[in-house]
């Protein structure tokens, strides 16, 4: 594998890379729902939340991916349970079932909306079916899951809960030919702030915005980006993905997972409606 391809290779998660926080609410009695738990950031967060003592309910449309997440947790020796729910976030009955099943494992206290999709096309060529599916997975489902989780948050011993949303640099500025992704990520930041506005300080929310992360989602979009822009795969990595950042490497999924752990913890009690921007300087600096 050449050096540029190595920059997007999806790394294995090791236990020593998971950050732990001493938090009284991080117990197996409390559940953390993680969407997109079958790969990438969702898998990393499922492992990190379990390593921090929470009962994790990982959900994904990919049943095999979920099984691999559970197996990885067992290989790492993580003791807290990782339960799984195979579900399609575009189906309301499935979304409702996720929360119902999570409630059967403990008190639903944390929700991480991580699941994402990508499609590369100019607006005039963008298929509306792809747009609709991305909207339902990346924006409507997070809103509906939040709506369903709110009563459970308020029924916990302290009446508190927290929603973490996987936003992006594309929730701050946009790049061409990603209209559905851009709109969804801007929308997630709006959802984050709306939850904070209505949470009365008891239900917190935050979003995490990163640049390109070493995930299957990123790796899989490289050929389409190269074709649409008429450049090489290596140029996509060096110029498009890393060109504006001041860092010369991408984040790993576990790095992002650790930000969610921080956001859910008591260390972030004043983080409410805010966005954790970890983009290597991509959006806030220029040459």
UniProtKB/TrEMBL annotation:
Q: Which residues form the signal peptide?
A: none
Matching entries from PROSITE patterns are given as:
ADH_SHORT
Set out the biological process GO terms recorded for this chain's protein: monocarboxylic acid metabolic process
Q: Pfam families annotated for this entry?
A: adh_short
Family matches, as InterPro entries = NAD(P)-bd_dom_sf (IPR036291), Sc_DH/Rdtase_CS (IPR020904), SDR (IPR050259), SDR_fam (IPR002347)
Q: Which domain of life is it from?
A: Archaea
Task: Say which family it is in.
Answer: Belongs to the short-chain dehydrogenases/reductases (SDR) family.
Protein name, UniProt field: SDR family NAD(P)-dependent oxidoreductase
Organism expressing this protein natively? Natribaculum luteum
